[in-house]
Specification:
This protein has 414 residues and is of the alpha/beta class. It has 14 helices and 16 strands. Helices cover 40% and strands 18% of the residues. Bound molecules: adenosine-5'-triphosphate, (3R,4S,5R)-3,4,5-trihydroxycyclohex-1-ENE-1-carboxylic acid and magnesium ion (MG). Magnesium ion binds next to helix 9.
């Protein structure tokens, strides 16, 4: 097999190599290059094909001897295939975006579409959306005629597409727009894929609006590139399988529950089962505060503790592929629910109240644990995707969670 790769200037974040490997393109590498290094790369006879990302999608067009009409219309190339006469340039992002919209259940025909952002991916989205029959396409940008100060002019938008990096790791939790300002909105698409649920998509989910994240686009554009590289057809079903495989790898397993319900115990067992790292938010709080949790409570009260806990929750919540063990009261701050769900499947551990220990737990020490359970049970239910009984052996609980997690993503238990 020839040599392939993803070309960009800063590529620490790229998930492309494992995705292309999954489609059978196994000799696939990260090609991080400065602009002056590009001619040598294009002259390298070992290379058979190159994917291109920021900031080179326009630059590479002049290095192609043939440009596909769609790439010309969009004004960007993300896939270069080497032929006898030189590189041929294509744009498979458009296919990827159309696929993402389809699986998100969002259509454009006859719709008023607002596209947030005016960069390269915005041009691609505009092309796809117009070709799909949008009745009007409004581009919103900070310095444009349509901007974030006069969004009310487009309150009748039916579809909103975010092409800006707002909400992306490591600055997750912020949203470019508030969806309550768009009462006609019936579809929201966010090109960001890390975290999988940006603040914008979490709001769409809460409002019951059909929505989709950028991971299916990333995987679909890679599939279309591999079809060109390997000159073969790959079934669309394979895209969904690869998306699930990646979601399984990167989604956090999050444990919530009453103090002493077994989160740390089951979390450690799960970390072993799944070969993941367990991140304990209480330990994070102690490290960041430089004292134990009882000391922090004594010095700053519950509010002081919750403030540090909130920061730790935001930090861990946007990480990937971890087991996250929370403190019992994390669900009391409703903002933490989104922070844990943006990249996580959340499990609520339930253990009979009379079995809960109070040792070393400042809020449990003198508390009526039954009353605490009554107060918090609805919050745990609201924050979690699955409830798990932890009255049996903790090994069984860990096993149940790992089984559910693998089944949910349709992946065979590794
Ligand atoms: N399924 C179980 N069977 C028997 N004992 C258990 C089980 N799960 C947890 N325990 C025991 O209960 C106690 C509390 O467990 P653990 O410290 O894991 O709870 P936690 O939810 O992490 O508590 P906290 O909220 O205070 O961090 C420990 O002594 C642990 O060994
Ligand atoms: O981050 C990545 O690996 C990529 C992102 C998009 O620009 C794609 O167009 C490119 O092929 C790969
Ligand atoms: Mg614990």
């Amino acid at each position: 097999m020839g040599r392939y790769g993803i070309l960009g200037r800063v590529l620490l974040h790229s998930w492309s190599p494992p995705i292309h490997n999954a489609f059978g393109c196994t000799n696939y590498h990260i090609l991080q290059r400065e602009p002056e290094e590009l001619p040598a790369l294009f002259a390298d006879p070992a290379m058979s094909g190159i994917n291109v990302t920021i900031p080179y999608k326009q630059t590479v067009m002049e290095h192609c001897v043939y440009l596909d009409p769609l790439a010309v219309e969009i004004g960007a190339v993300n896939t270069m295939v080497r032929h006898a006469d030189g590189y041929h340039g294509y744009n498979t992002d458009a296919y990827g975006f159309a696929y993402m919209a389809k699986v998100g259940g969002v259509g454009f025909d006859g719709k008023k579409v607002v596209v947030l952002g005016s960069g390269g991916s915005s041009l691609m989205v505009q092309t796809v959306v117009k070709r799909a029959g949008a009745s009007s396409v409004i581009v919103v940008s900070r310095g444009g005629v349509n901007n974030y100060e006069n969004l009310h002019l487009h309150a009748d938008a039916q579809v909103i597409v975010n092409t800006t990096p707002l909400g992306m790791y490591p600055k997750a939790g912020v949203s470019p727009v508030d969806l309550t300002a768009f009462p006609c909105c019936e579809g929201v698409l966010d090109l960001v894929y890390n975290p999988q649920k940006t603040a914008l998509l979490l709001q769409a989910e809460a409002m019951g609006i059909p929505h989709g994240d950028g991971l299916p686009m990333l995987v679909a554009q890679a599939k279309a590139a591999d079809e060109l590289y390997m000159n073969c057809a790959i079934a669309d079903e394979k895209i969904d399988a690869v998306v699930k495989q990646i979601r399984h790898q990167v989604t956090n397993i999050v444990l919530v529950g009453m103090p002493s319900s077994g989160k740390s115990t089951v979390g450690d067992l799960l970390a072993q089962l799944s070969a993941r790292t367990a991140v304990d938010l209480d330990q994070g709080v102690e490290q960041s505060a430089g004292c134990t949790i009882p000391e922090l409570f004594a010095a700053q009260g519950e509010a002081g503790f919750r403030a540090v806990e909130r920061v730790e929750t935001m930090k861990a919540g946007q990480g990937s592929g971890q087991v996250i063990v929370t403190g019992g009261g994390v669900v009391k701050d409703l903002r933490n629910h989104d922070a844990l769900r943006q990249n996580g499947r959340v499990y609520h551990l339930v253990r009979d109240v009379e079995k809960l220990s109070r040792d070393g737990r400042p809020l449990s020490a003198n508390a009526d644990l039954e009353a605490m359970w009554q107060e918090r049970a609805p919050l745990y239910a609201q924050a979690s995707d699955v409830t798990v009984d932890n009255n049996g052996a903790p090994e069984e609980t860990a096993d149940m969670i790992w089984r559910d997690f693998c089944e949910y993503f349709g992946v065979e238990r590794p």
